[in-house]
Amino acid sequence: MRSSYQFSQDDTELYFVTFTIVERIPIFTKHKYCDIIIDNLEFYRKEQGLKVHFLVIMPDHVHLIVSSEKDLGNIIHNLKSYTAKEIIQNLKNDKRKWIL
Description:
By secondary structure, this protein is an alpha+beta fold. It is built from two helices and three strands. A hairpin with a 3-residue loop joins β2 and β3 (about 60-70).
């Protein structure tokens, strides 16, 4: 289901964002999958001005408190899209297809 939330362009606004794995499968029990999230957040921090105030990675979901001067909705969309593709590719490479 798509969200109807609107993000402000004011970088003083903080947003609590949660990404949850479908069916709450515990993907983030291995560091390599956590690193995909962290590396992508670092990319958007450096390249798009994403400000990550807090980050918590749980076994089946991620919590963030973020802000940005740029289009936060677009950043979150791209972040989720890219990390999902990377995680799926890594799961296939690791022969963990049962998760998919």
